[in-house]
Design goal:
By secondary structure, the chain is mostly helical. The radius of gyration is 29 Å and the shape is globular.
């Protein structure tokens, strides 16, 4: 190769190629997209949602009951541990949440499987009616249940709260199990029948294990909805059957605002929710790996 050709090849190699130029343009474009309007709206929404939690956590360590910072203190957490009324309400909330979620999960799972397996005249009607508690406003459900309990002479208490929470949790479990069944390959049911399995064996060994992710999701959703419900519980709760949301509402109305003890309780509930979420996430990963 002649010397002028060597010089030309070296100059051509030193110039950025078209491929590198395209990659650089895409990189610059992606960098500019990081500061797009949608990203800005996203971060503004995140700050708007979580800033009250940050303020709540900050003032739960304030030694004063006012909004003026007077010093770091754990006195409100100490009062939280000594409040018997609060822990009684917390115990009621846990009992109602677990029991109503379990009942709603059993009924919703059986109903979803029955509607998918069998064909009957009122199938569409039953499927539509089952979603009404999800669509109706909570105040209507609370008032109607309160009138119903008064009409049959059932005294208000923990049992009426259990019935009410099971009623409005049922559609959520039903919907999640139905969504899982919509992806179900019914040839597996036929294969189980060909292998000699009866209807009960097919249900227990084939259908329920495949629907288990939807069942667990419905159960956890029902627990969450039960723990946070206030409107319906307010109408169906009786004397001595106060749940945690009702206790917090009563504490706020008695003092005329958010008390530091309620702030400390909120921080404990936030930490407990985050910890439970991490544990359940790792557990579901473990189940999926199996």
């Amino acid at each position: 190769m002649k010397y002028p050709d060597i010089i030309k090849n070296a100059i051509a190699a030193a110039k950025p190629s078209k491929t590198h130029g395209e990659a650089a343009r895409h990189a610059r474009r992606a960098y500019r997209r990081q500061f797009s309007f949608s990203q800005t709206v996203f971060w503004v929404a995140i700050i708007f949602l979580f800033m009250p939690l940050v303020v709540l956590i900050f003032y739960s360590f304030n030694s004063s009951t006012s909004m003026n910072w007077t010093g770091f203190s754990l006195r409100w957490y100490s009062q939280l541990l000594r409040s018997r009324e609060l822990w009684w309400a917390f115990r009621n909330s846990i009992i109602i949440a677990i029991s109503s979620a379990a009942a709603a999960t059993v009924i919703g799972t059986i109903g979803a499987i029955g509607i998918n397996w069998y064909r009957f005249k009122l199938r569409a009607y039953v499927q539509t009616i089952s979603f009404l508690p999800m669509i109706l406003p909570e105040i209507i459900i609370g008032v109607s249940l309160s009138i119903f309990f008064a009409g049959i002479g059932l005294p208000l208490g923990l049992f009426t709260i259990f019935v009410a929470h099971t009623t409005f949790n049922l559609p959520f479990v039903f919907l999640m199990v139905m969504a899982r069944l919509d992806e179900f390959d019914f040839s597996i049911i036929e294969a189980a029948g060909d292998l000699g399995a009866n209807e009960k064996q097919t249900l227990m060994r084939v259908t329920l294990p495949i629907c288990m992710p939807g069942i667990i999701s419905g159960f956890l959703t029902a627990i969450t909805l039960s723990l946070e419900d206030f409107v319906i519980t307010f109408f169906v709760a009786g004397p001595g059957s106060s749940t945690l949301p009702i206790f917090i509402y009563s504490a706020i109305t008695r003092r005329g605002g958010i008390t530091p003890v309620v702030s400390a309780l909120s921080v404990v509930m936030i930490l407990g929710t985050v910890g439970l979420t991490i544990v359940l996430r790792n557990f579901l990963k473990y189940i999926a790996a199996k």
